[in-house]
Every structure is written in C-alpha cells, then in structure tokens.
Write a structure and sequence with these properties.
- The complex is a heterodimer of chains A (about 110) and B (about 120).
- With about 110 residues, chain A is mainly β.
- Chain A contains no helices and 11 strands.
- In chain A, the strands form 2 sheets. In chain A, strands 2, 4, 5, 9, 10 and 11 form a 6-stranded mixed beta sheet that branches.
- In chain A, strand 7 and strand 8 form a beta hairpin.
- By secondary structure, chain B is mainly β.
- In chain B, strands 2, 4, 5, 8, 9 and 10 form a 6-stranded mixed beta sheet that branches. Chain B has a 4-stranded antiparallel beta sheet with strand order 1-3-7-6, with no helix packed on it.
- In chain B, a hairpin with a 5-residue loop joins strand 6 and strand 7.
- Chain B starts with a strand and ends with a strand.
- Classes of the chains: A mainly beta (about 110), B mainly beta (about 120).
- At the A-B interface, strand 4, strand 5, strand 9 and strand 10 of A face strand 5 and strand 9 of B.
C-alpha cells in the first residue's frame, strides 16, 4: 500500500523567506503527484499537478518537483507572504489518491 | 456547476440517527471520491466511483457506511446509526477521469457532529 509522508509537520517562517516543503512516497508507480493547500474550515485547493513523466511544474511563486526514483517531491515557495499560511498536502495518484498528513505553514508578518 | 458542491455544510445529529451527505461533482467528471478528515488528522479514503465500474469500497470503516452514485453524477454518503467517532469533516472530490493528467477538485466538505 502506498504511504505518503510529509516533513515537517509544522513550519513557521518570517515573511519574505523562501521555503521548501517535503513529500515522500513509498511506491514509485504513480500517475502523478498533486499539491494542495487547505485553509481552516475549507476543502482542499489544487496548487500544482506533476505528471509522472515530468520533473517539475511552476505556478507564480510556487515550484513543485518530482523525483519518482527516490520517491520524493518538494514544493518550493518563494518570497513567502502571510496569505500563504495554510496546511499544504501532497497526494500521490495510483489506483486512488494517497494523501500525506500535511505541513502546517505559518508566515509571520 | 463551477465546482464540487456538498450539502449540508454542517450537520449536527444525535447518536444513533442516520445521516445522508450529498455531493454534486463538476459536470462531466467521471471519477468521484469520498474522504473523511478528523480533527488534526490527514485525509482518510472512504470510497471511489469511476464511471459505470463497481465502486472501490475498501476504505469504508464499517457496514454502517454506504454510498451511491446515481446516473454517474450526484453521490450520497449514508451513515447509519451514527456514533460519536463518526464526527469529522466529510470531503467529496471529483476528477475528469482517473489517471495521469486529471487533477482532483474538492468540495468544501460537510462537518458532521454526532452528539
């Protein structure tokens, strides 16, 4: 069974810092890797999807990378802002979507 | 609709009662998923529908839980004889199809509280 782990569980940074969130998965036979953010009391919002054949995807200040062979993905956030504060989850797609437990990010003004 | 719609947004029920949670996926999406998220926990997979195929029910925690998807669109998750441990946010998601380039889109969830 696919197991997805996210480190760290929580992260607090001052505004303006660049940061990296980590996601690891045990089974490299995935269709894609998707990153989400979740605000308190809300559902999940899709940020980036990396297909299994791709190495990275970029959207604005966000860059996600995928290394299937090592079972790792990273989400890089440049020039963090207080509005980036949320929980970030990654999901590896096989027969279904397998989620990590998330990283809770706080950006301090 | 523009996104995945779930109703009700909040539901408070007494222990032992049955509840029904509804999900309207994005139009044209063939894959539909139900997840449960307990306070401070990750997402727990419950059930998955893909087109007309038999659903993957492997995540349902007990026989008190069941789900249907009528006409390949709307889905209803039913919890019978609710217990306090059923209290959680129930999230529905849909994607165009299962597979490589089909991102998952979530609704805002139904917060279920069993008293």
């Amino acid at each position: 069974k696919q197991e997805v782990t996210q480190i760290p569980a929580a992260l607090s940074v001052p505004e303006g810092e660049n940061l990296v969130l980590n996601c690891s998965f045990t089974d490299s036979a995935i269709y894609n890797l998707q990153w989400f953010r979740q605000d308190p009391g809300k559902g999940l919002t899709s940020l980036l999807l990396i297909q299994s054949s791709q190495r990275e995807q970029t959207s604005g200040r966000l860059n996600a990378s995928l290394d299937k062979s090592s079972g790792r993905s990273t989400l890089y956030i440049a020039a963090s802002q207080p509005g980036d504060s949320a929980t970030y989850l990654c999901a590896a797609t096989g027969n279904q979507f397998y989620f990590g437990t998330g990283t809770s990010l706080t950006v301090i003004p | 609709g523009a996104g995945v719609s779930q109703s009700p947004s909040n539901k408070v029920t007494e222990k032992g009662k049955d509840v029904e949670l509804r999900c309207d996926p994005i139009s044209g999406h063939t894959a539909l998923y139900w997840y449960r998220q307990s306070l401070g926990q990750g997402l727990e997979f419950l059930i998955y529908f893909q087109g007309n195929s038999a659903p993957d029910k492997s995540g349902l925690p007990s026989d008190r839980f069941s789900a249907e998807r009528t006409g390949g669109s709307v889905s209803t998750l039913t919890i019978q004889r609710t217990q306090q441990e059923d209290s959680a946010v129930y999230l529905c998601a849909s994607s165009l199809m299962s597979g490589e380039n089909s991102p998952l889109h979530f609704g805002n969830g139904t917060r279920l509280t069993v008293t």
